[in-house]
Design goal:
There is one protein chain. This protein has a 5-stranded antiparallel beta sheet, with helices on both faces. It has a 3-stranded antiparallel beta sheet with strand order 6-8-9, covered by helices on one side. It has a two-stranded antiparallel sheet with strand order 7-10. Helix 5 packs across helix 8 (235-264), helix 6 runs antiparallel to helix 7 (220-231) and helix 8 (235-264) runs antiparallel to helix 9. The chain has 300 residues and is an alpha+beta fold. 49% of the residues lie in helices and 17% in strands. The termini are far apart. The chain is built from 9 helices and 10 strands. It has 2 domains: 7-94, Phosphorylase Kinase, domain 1, CATH 3.30.200; 99-299, Aminoglycoside phosphotransferase (APH), C-terminal lobe (Aminoglycoside 3'-phosphotransferase, Chain: A, domain 2, Alpha-Beta Complex), CATH 3.90.1200.10. A hairpin with a 2-residue loop joins strand 2 and strand 3.
């Protein structure tokens, strides 16, 4: 069993695996969504990953060219890319058969926090990919949102994002830094699946990592502490980057569901309610932080 769309990149797969022909390849379907299909193709002990991405998943080759390769980010080597109809096909090095979703150990989450710190240490020269204007646009386009929450975000979250742009450097945002995209070969960890990447000053990647760790029953504090130590970062700044990063991540997710996900991943409509509740909690965190700052100012 092999992907039916393999032909445009078949020569690269055969060269990488040293298979005599396509029929000799063993195929393993790893993931299939409406806009993304991922396979492992192997011949003997040699294997590669092949991906087909459309819609929001079609920009990964461009991200490799713009960010991953120039910055030396911890991503699989891109062996070949090709365009076929409305999709992009990628042939990538196989960096491991175990991901953090399969083995969600605290050691794995700590290693991922360290990996994230190394990614964010790379200096970037690109403009921000998540400005205040983008947040405003997303918040205004998410139709199911209650008016009070929308107004709250347009006032408090937009201002907090502006503060981060003035106080923190831009860094690479993976955009989907979750257990299924964190892979190990038993020695090192690698982040896979980069089509949603951009540059910004927030910490949505740490937010999603901690969020999933808690869902697996781990405590958030050791993971954040490990990131702080690895990054040499300021605790208060990271706390604000986490809150704003969570807001940015969730507004992107909601915008995708409303505009694309309901079509390509129909079950994503069921995610809207929980995501809006999570967004409201994060907005409350901004209020709590603002109140604490006011109290401190009054004491001084």
């Amino acid at each position: 069993m092999r992907p039916v769309w393999l032909e445009p990149v078949a020569d690269a797969v055969l060269e990488a695996t040293q298979a005599p022909d396509v029929d000799a390849l063993k195929g393993e379907l790893l993931r299939e969504w409406g806009s993304s299909e991922v396979w492992r193709l192997s011949y003997g002990l040699r294997s590669v990953i092949v991906k087909r991405g459309s819609d929001a998943q079609s920009g990964e080759a461009e991200v490799y060219e713009r960010l991953v390769v120039p910055l030396g980010l911890p991503a699989p080597e891109l062996i070949r890319s090709a365009r076929a109809d409305d999709a992009v096909l990628l042939v990538l090095a196989d960096v491991g058969r175990v991901n953090l979703e399969q083995e969600p150990t605290i050691e794995g989450f700590l290693a991922a926090a360290e990996l994230l710190a190394s990614m964010r240490a790379k200096p970037v020269e690109e403009p921000s990919g998540f400005t205040q204007e983008r947040l405003v646009d997303l918040v205004e386009r998410i139709e199911p949102m209650e008016p009070d929450l929308r107004e709250h975000l347009l006032v408090k979250a937009v201002a907090a994002l502006g503060d981060l742009h003035r106080q923190a450097p831009l860094a690479v945002i993976h955009g989907d830094f979750v257990p299924k995209n964190l892979v190990t070969d038993g020695t090192r960890w690698t982040a896979v699946d980069w089509p949603l990447s951009y540059c910004a000053p927030h910490l949505s990647d740490l937010y999603t990592l901690v969020r999933d760790a808690v869902a697996y029953g781990h405590q958030s504090e050791p993971i954040v502490a490990h990131y702080l130590d690895a990054a040499g970062a300021d605790k208060d700044l990271v706390s604000r980057q986490l809150t704003v990063g969570g807001i940015c991540f969730i507004t992107i997710a909601l915008g995708w569901i409303v505009e694309e996900g309901h079509r390509t991943v129909p079950e994503s409509k069921d995610w809207i309610g929980p995501l809006l509740a999570e967004l409201a909690d994060l907005a409350d965190e901004l209020d709590d932080r603002s109140d604490a700052l006011d109290d401190l100012t009054d004491e001084l």
